[in-house]
Specification:
The protein is α/β, with parallel strands linked by helices. The protein has one domain: HAD superfamily/HAD-like (Rossmann fold, 3-Layer(aba) Sandwich). It contains 3 helices and 5 strands. The strands form 2 sheets. It has a 3-stranded parallel beta sheet. Strands 2-3 form a two-stranded antiparallel ribbon. A hairpin with a 4-residue loop joins β2 and β3. The protein is elongated, with a radius of gyration of 14 Å. It starts with 5 loop residues before the first strand and ends with a strand.
């Protein structure tokens, strides 16, 4: 039996890129304070969850390899992402974040 799932990128898809004054670039947020969901992102994910369609958020994080932030900072950002979803729209546990460097 085939099952549907939706895979979404994180940075620039469900959250805004953040300006990093240290590097002078717009990129993935490098800390908790820089994380901001895009309008409608949480509601869209919740709508898919209500349809029993799992949503998997994937995110490559070259900033870790470049030394711009640590895996601990990434974990805090991922927690902020999950908290933002839960505070804006009901999201099932099927919504997860996977990060690769």
């Amino acid at each position: 039996m085939q099952r549907l799932a939706v895979f979404l990128g994180r940075d620039g898809v469900i959250n805004r890129y953040a300006y990093d004054p240290k590097w002078g670039t717009f990129d993935a947020p490098s800390d908790f304070d820089g994380f901001e969901l895009l309008p409608g992102a949480a509601e869209a994910i919740a709508s898919l969850n209500r349809l029993k369609i799992p949503v998997i958020v994937v995110s490559n994080q070259p900033g870790i390899a470049k030394g711009r932030f640590t895996t601990r900072q990434l974990d805090a950002i991922n927690e902020a992402c999950a908290f933002s979803w839960l505070s804006q729209a009901p999201v099932s546990m099927a919504s997860t974040i996977a990060a690769t460097t």
